Amino acid sequence: MFMETAIDTPESKYEILPKTLSNGEMDGELLEVAMGPQHPSTHGVFRMDVVLDGEKVVKLKPVFGYLHRNHEKIAENTTYLASMPYTDRLDYLCSMTNNWAYALSVEKLAGLQPPERAEYIRIITGELTRLVNHTCLVGFLLQDMGALGTPLMYAFREREMILDLFESLSGSRMMCNYMRFGGCRVDLPAGWLEQAKRAVDSYSGFLDEFEKLLTENEILVARTQGIGVLPPDLAVNASITGPMLRASGVNYDIRKVDKYGIYDRFEFRVPLGDHGDVYDRYMIRLLEMRESVKILNQALRDIPAGPIVDPKAKLRGFRPKVGEAYGRIEGPKGELGFYLISDGTPNPYRYRVRPPSLINLTVLEDMCLGQDVADVVIILGSVDIVLGEVDR
Amino acid sequence: MLGEGIIKGMVETARNFVGSYSDPERLTTVEYPEDKIPAKENARNFPFLVYDGDDAARGLRCVACQICEKECPPKCIYIVKSKDKKPDYIGKPQFYPAVFDIDVSVCMSCQICVEVCPFEAIKMDTEFELSNPDRFGGLLQDKHRLAKSNEYYHKIHETEAAEVDARLAAEKAKAEAKARADAEAKAAAAAKAATAAATPKPAPNPTTVAPAK
Amino acid sequence: MIIGEFFRGLFLMIWRVATDQPEAKADLLAVFPPSARPVISAVLTVSPIIGIFATLFALTTLLERKGLGRIQNRLGPNRVGPFGILQPVADGLKMLTKEDIIPRSADALVHFLAPVVLAVPTILAFAVLPYGRNLVPVDMDAGILFFFAVGASTELAIFMAGWSSRNKYSLLGAMRAIAQMISYEIPLIISSVSVIMIAGSLSPVEIIAQQGRYLAGGFVPHWFVLTPWGLAGFIMFLIASLAESNRSPFDIPEAESELIAGHLTEYSGFKYALFFMAEYFGMFAVSGLAVTLFLGGWHAPFEFLEIVPSYVWFFAKLMGLVCLFIWVRGTVPRLRVDQLLNFAWKFMLPLSLLNLVVAAVWHFTAAWEFPGAGLGRWLLGAVMIGVPYVWLGRALSGSKKITQRTYRFAD
Amino acid sequence: MVMETLEQIKARIENAISGAKPEIIPNESPSAQRSLLLDPAHAVEVAKFLRDDSQLRLDYCSNVTGVDWLDLIIKEKVKVKKVVEGVEKEVEEPVERKRPGYLEAVYHLYSMALKHGPLIIRLRTENRADKNHVPSLTPVWRGAEFQEREIYDLYGIIFDGHPDLRRILMWEGFADHPMRKDYVEPDDYEYEPTPHDEVLEKTKQHHSPEPKP
Asked: Which of B154, C175, C269, C333 could connect to C98 by a Cys-Cys bridge, CB 3.0–4.6 Å?
């Protein structure tokens, strides 16, 4: 389906636009604006070098690295376990899924198998994280659209309940550092499941309220429909993943494809969009949250008792065999993968994060060309980036 | 019809406006310095060192093994091992930290030091009001500031502390039982030796008896 | 002796203002020599207006922050003084003590003049509004015309600010502001022309006088907003005035999330405060005009409530409109600039022109005598404006194939 | 859907593209993710084959990354036939072999159309210094664009045919490649003094210690 139209990247597109015209004069028609790194809606220290013709974008180059701390190098100079808290800080909105992806990769590398209860806990915390991330995203997106924080505040109100759950489970609200190789760190505290059930039950009500507030709003619809269209063939070729890919209509959800963890035990559907514009990306996230609520209801109902860590897992002196492994999960932002090479020492020889936020930005320019400045902001918002992960 | 969605949205905001006065579920703000959310049992902020008994210097569980120093991801722990030894809770002579510093401006509250500690000596505190005008010295916590009693630990992490105490008590009981068994064995050996001493044989060397403290 | 006269005059002035009596200043002015009287009279008129609106500005910022806070399920400012009442004072002090930065490459003179040029006309616009029964600073025959003329000059100031800052965001903001304000001036004026047509006068005092009657035993006021053309005109006037005063969803020149702060990007300290104040003053002025044109000015909603001093009603209606503005601001996202212009030219303008026709029909059907004529007139007007509204609305949103969507699900 | 085995894929590549010599790199770890080493000369062709072949359709290039392999001295024991004391025997002798270092680009490929994967392909440079070129696969998979830029930035592999090969995370004008194993951190005058650290020592070279009151 995609092969016939796969794109060979045209080289001309990547030329840096000349600052002067061919006859050597300055071009007075174009306006170069550096949006960021200090800009209210670049979601952190991110810069876009934009060339404008009036308000139309004729060129856009993303510039990264303001938050670069060489996460991978740090991880290669420390033990496997000590990298776990650093993964929290990649995409700081979804520390649980980051932990999960890293733990999954190390388990592949070392041949560990988490017990059933730990898998259930991972699914529960992972899906709660998806709720947190998507809730924040729609809030931020509408903030970028100029809705003055009202949707964002409603989103944060709901997020608070889930962060409370995370705090009583892992001790920290955002930097959970909860999962371990072969399981989880601590068992669920007493009453946690009931509290989680309450939070999940009230979530559908919040989603209804949120949709009533804005989904039918004429301004939102006019601002988002037909804006930042991403065709499916380009999306696949440019390795776009996550809700952004599915908004373009490509059915690819790693929870369904890899069935990692125990996702094959749960009934849920994958929403797909047909237009691939900002509105679809917004709606896909709202629909995914409803599916997450379904998964959570099943997981909270079925969770068994039992141990939470693989007895083979070692906390101190953990040295996987020589070899390599690539593990990936469907993170809230897309495919989050960790690639590890072990040389038999306590530190990984190579530690690589596949950051969905960064790779989803590949097509930012393609989506923005010909749109207005105002659209650039919401297109960027709909990509869903966190600079901690983009720059690493 | 044009405007319908906007009207719906305005009804929703009006509902929230009224709800923020009537429904405590909606107005979730807690006004911080006056009201505080009680700390969750698993909450963690910065590490502290546990001591048994009343004397922080004597009861410190830490034996300066430096595992936490090695495992700490941001390397915020600094330990200098003592030259002499002190008895630990079982009574076994152990080293103790001559210097134990944690730079809380570097610490990222990950709890890995707690997990890797084999002696249950370092635990996470829930105290978070640590702001200090001195950027370097004020946030460098030394052994005396870090030492907190086992009772305090029980107060902030009740379940966890009870488990730890049970485990330590079991270990201690095991160690005592072993010591008793050893002592009995030695006593028996001594008795045997005493009976043997009646016969003309060289007396056993008394220094072989392990010094029990 | 003279001091006694002065205080008597001052007391009488306050008393007369408070009780809606005419010639409030007469006794006080008699104290002064005739040559000084015009100046004293002007000062006596201008200073309370500026004082009252400055206070109202402070209160409105607090009200807005509190109201938005509650809409967003927050408490809003509550730390400075009891219930945060002193928050505006703290804000003001903060603004005044901030460093006043002029960018090195900016045009310093124009950069300085812009807030001044903005503040003066917004304050001038207050001159022609009748605040109470006998409270009108300047009773001008062409008061409405003066209001619009003065209001239009704010565009110059905003462009000065954007241009002189030498900032690309400022320039973009200024360009947007010009496009937006010129576009919305037209529906704003045309929607008020229908009132002028019916009232047959450009004088605000006369327009209010025409709305001063009551029907149905004093329980239905004869406000223009209660007619089909008046209601449509009022709504269009409100929308246009939102755009005129750069309020959400038309805060496109400022557009925090896109252009940092638009034309205000390079302003700080007192100049920024002046801009901020002028924006609110503009909002008060235009709401005051909406009250004058459509909501019966200072008249009470029911006849028996006319005992309450008239200015209370004026300011109550004004604050009602301001609250509506805040509510809208707390709900809707921002439009894009081309959509905003489309909305102005393809929707607001035809509809406001049509509204003139409806007003004319209303005027000429006044002579209808058959039973149910009142209701018939009303329905005729409503249909005349309602059908094109639905049709134009559909055309506006259908032009870009905006639809309700359904989504596929894969297992 | 299950993908063909690596051996089958290798055979089909050799059939389809003359001259291509893919080599299977083993992986002993429990993950058992083996990979195919491609020769740079035919890499783009092979990549296009992998993408367009109807049974593989690896249309999705998930992860692209670099690995730095330093010069390595491999100590092996080689069985050598030797005449020892007049009898021919097999004797193990230690042999030291120098493996020159190289840089490696690793691509993880999946198929979105057929939902299988991963196929891991590797490209190696000849050495770590001057012959650090490999062909870019960005023209085949656009998704490799930023990741190849990142490898160029952090490892210094030059991708021939990349449309926009600039530094991505480090700033323009930065000379070194920080992810290489032999990278030495430059001395930075912006160090903030932290207690008990080598940073503290470095800081002292740039800042005079604060005068104590």
From this structure: C269
